[in-house]
Specification:
seven-stranded antiparallel sheet, alpha+beta, 2 domains, Thrombin, subunit H, six-stranded antiparallel beta barrel, globular
Length: 245
């Protein structure tokens, strides 16, 4: 009987060891096979400067522009970033490589009645664009990533790129949404990050960051809101061209 008990104990220990090893191997494979979301975010996030500051995300390469050596790129951002009055003559988009691209206001268009705008610039440089995800399938608790260029502050002497991680905490139903904001998440995005991308754990674009609510009692950010990318697709008439499965 004692021998059988020892054999049973050994069997259980072996099973636990195998399961633990499998879990460890699974985590390693996950890290190898999953996209590097922080690298994706840094590649597709742009900085917007002008009468107001903000961020944006490269969403489309529309091919050859006025010159056969240049491509036309589309950046998605918030309308409130580029709609100050009196209307400025232009904004500047800075891509990851440090290049600055002038965007005249004639190349800025609001997307329906949403707090979204598309900006167009041309460049001889080639840039990757964000893969479009399915924001309709996001569930509460899911990990989300927000990136953008934070404004200077007492602790930040200059605009600084930020990559933040949080979770989807809820949704605003369509009957009560304002300007397209439906996503609520636990990412304390900073001023200047408005218009930056909200990515899922595969690096797909699922929203645009843009609005924060402040607790009037404490003066601290109580929640941050984003516009799900499905609203943009429906309002603009575009269909998602690709995503990372």
């Amino acid at each position: 009987m004692k021998l059988r008990q020892n054999n049973l104990t050994s069997w259980v220990v072996n099973i636990i060891t195998i399961v633990a090893a499998g879990g460890f191997i699974g985590r390693i494979l996950w890290q190898i096979l999953m996209p590097n979301v922080s690298e994706i975010a840094k590649t597709v996030t742009v900085r917007i400067d002008g009468a107001n500051s903000g961020s944006g995300v490269l969403i489309e390469d529309r091919g050859v522009g006025a010159s056969p050596l240049e491509h036309r790129y589309i950046v998605l951002s918030n309308w409130h970033v580029v709609s100050l009055l009196p209307t400025p003559k232009s904004f500047t988009i800075r891509t990851r490589d440090g290049q600055k691209h002038l965007v005249p206001t004639s190349k800025i268009v609001r997307v329906g009645k949403l707090d979204l705008a598309i900006l167009e610039f041309q460049s001889r440089y080639r840039y990757p664009v964000a893969a479009i995800g399915n924001s309709d399938k996001l569930t509460e608790g899911e990990t989300l990533y927000v990136s953008g260029w934070a404004d200077p502050s007492p602790t930040l002497p200059t605009r600084t790129y930020q990559f933040l991680v949080g979770n989807l905490s809820g949704r605003i139903d369509r009957q009560h949404e304002r300007d397209g904001y439906t996503l609520i998440y636990t990412v304390n995005a900073l001023p200047g990050m408005s218009g930056g991308p909200v990515l899922d754990n595969r690096g797909n674009l699922v929203g645009i960051n843009g609005r924060a609510t402040v607790d009037l009692r404490t003066g601290t950010v109580s929640s941050v809101l984003g516009i799900d990318i499905a609203r943009y697709l429906r309002a603009s008439g575009n269909l998602p061209r690709h995503n990372r499965k």
